LtrC-like protein (Faecalimonas umbilicata), 309 residues
Amino acid sequence: MSTNFDSMLNVSAVPQDDRTAAFIAESKNNRNRCYELSEQITAAVATDSQMFQKYLDVQSRFDRYTASNSLLILAQRPEAQKLGDYSYWRSQGTFVKRQERDNPVLILEPGKEYEREDGSIGMYYNAKKLYEPSQTSLRNYTQEKPQITEQQLIRALLSNPPVNIVPAEPDQMPEGKGALFAPDERCIYVRKGMDAQSIFLSLSPELALAGFADGKKIYDRDAEAFHAYCASYMLCKKYGIDTQYFDFSHAPEFFENMEPQEVRAELAKAQESFKNINARMEKSLQQERNQTERQQPRAESHPQRGDAR
C-alpha cells in the first residue's frame, strides 16, 4: 500500500513579524490591564476597611512582592497561597494546564529605563503571567509550613534588632503597654512576665517604629504608627499569632483625599517594614533549622546503649 505525502508538504510558516506583532500587542494589553486593575483595587482598598484587611492578608503571604503587585493579586486571586510562572512550575516537575493558560494572575515587573522629555528617567514595566497550584497538573497541593516553637519564634523576632531590647519591670511600663520604643535611648523596653503571643503582639509594632526611626534626625511616632500597626498585623498573620484584636475600621480615614499613587506609596512603607523584619526572622529560623540538621546525623551515629540492635 503506497502513501502519498505530497499533499501534506505545502505548509506555510507563520511570518516572524506576525508573531512579534502578536506578542507586542498581548504584552501591551496585559500591561494596560494591570494599570486598570491597580487603579480599581487601590480605590477599593483605600475606601473599604474590609478590603484593606484582605490586602494585608495577601501581602502577608507574598512578603517578597511589592505592594502594587500584592494589590494586583488581591484583584485577581485573593485566596492564592502560592504563585509561579511557567518556568517555576516546570522546575517543580509539573506544568500549567492548557485550559488555564489564558487565566493568569498578572503582575508588573520593571523592564528597561528610558529618558522622559524633561530629562528624568522613567521605567518601562512588563506584565508577567503567574499561576497558582490549582491551575497546574499538581494534585492535592498543600503548602508545607515548618513547625516553629514559641521559643524559636521569639528568638527570631529578637534577632538583629535595629535598637537594643531591654526587659522592664511591669511597674516601669506605661499602663497597657507591653513594649515601648524609646528613640532617645535607642532601645525598646519590654514588659517582663508576658507570654510569647503577648510579646509578639507588643514588640512587633515597636520594632517597626524603631526601623522607621533608624538613621533619621527627625522621628514622629504618630506619623509612622499606622504603618507599624499594619506591619505588625502582617507579621502576626504570617506566623500564626492571633489577630482578632486588630481593628482597621479607621483605615479609610487615613487614606482620605489621597490619590491612588499616594495610597500605594503608604502601603509600600508598611510592606517594606514588614519585609525587613520578616527577612531577619526567616534568616534566624533558617539558621536554627540548619543547626538542627547538622546535629541530627551526629546524634544518630552515636546511639545510646539501649538503642543498639
Summary: The chain is about 50% helix and 10% strand. Residues 305-309 have pLDDT under 50 and may be disordered.
